[in-house]
Amino acid sequence: MDNLSWKNVNLLSDSDISYLLYKEGKDINTISRIRGLDKSIIEKQIIESKIKYRLNEIGEKPNEIVSKLYKYSRKERVLLIESLNEEKKKEIEEYVLENLFMVTRDECQFYIWILGELKSKRAVQPIITFLRCTDGNIKRICCSSLGKIGDLAAENALIGALADKRPQVRQYAAKALGKIKSKKSLSYLYKLMETDSDKGYIINATKEAIDIIEGREQDE
Q: Cα(49)–Cα(16) distance, rounded to whole angstroms?
């Protein structure tokens, strides 16, 4: 971080220059005009530099890393996790699994999300346990994470979530079943399309899941 200075401008990357302007308080539009670059490029450069420097700030211990990640935006979290080596990811997975049942509601959602991003096979059964709770937000994140993990062991639990009273949970369950390519769920997904025919977002998610399971997505 000490090198991030105009004194070292010749050593800075394009991303670092945009990030330095951002650190000085200039907004995306202003930086875009100063640098003559599209706003989307500037935003990407700033995020890249944030990740690079934050990797040096988040610490070494799993609890420190998880605590820091909790405070960042979703996009930053994803990029930071992707930047970690496999050994560090394993340490974080271990820490999160050990503490999953001892944290607050909001932390629980975050922990389940992390396990999904890590594609933790060991997390499937614990997440299924949370999928049986009454909190709609937690159930939705459970479905999402189980889909990312992609293990058929979650098949029955996700099929059960298709009958949840909350539309978003049903939507995310359908998406997840598509991601794990659950052939067993096909009849339930077709039934969901009939019962939720008035909800376009559920119909779209269900159609997409059916196409993936039946292999039609490759023909498009």
A: 6
Residue range of the domain that includes 147: 58-219
Q: What is the pLDDT of residue 3?
A: 67
Q: Give the side-chain half-sphere CA count within 13 A for 44.
A: 6
**Number of domains the chain is built from:** 2
Q: 171: which residues sit within 8 A by CB, 6+ positions away? A: 199, 201, 202, 205
Q: Which residues contact 163 (CB under 8 A, 6 or more apart)?
A: 170
State what percent of residues in the chain have pLDDT above 90.
Answer: 67
Instruction: Give the C-alpha separation, 118 to 110, whole Å.
Output: 12
Do 63 and 45 share a domain, yes or no? no
- Cα angle vertex 156, ends 150, 162, to 5°? 95
| 122 and 18, same domain (yes or no) | no
Using a cut of 0.70, tell me whether the model's pTM lies above it. Answer: yes
- pLDDT of 182: 96
121: Cβ contacts below 8 Å, ≥ 6 apart: 149, 151
pLDDT tens digits, one per residue of 85-110: 899 999 999 999 999 999 999 999 99
End position of a domain, from candidates 57, 83, 98 = 57
Higher pLDDT: 203 or 220? It is 203
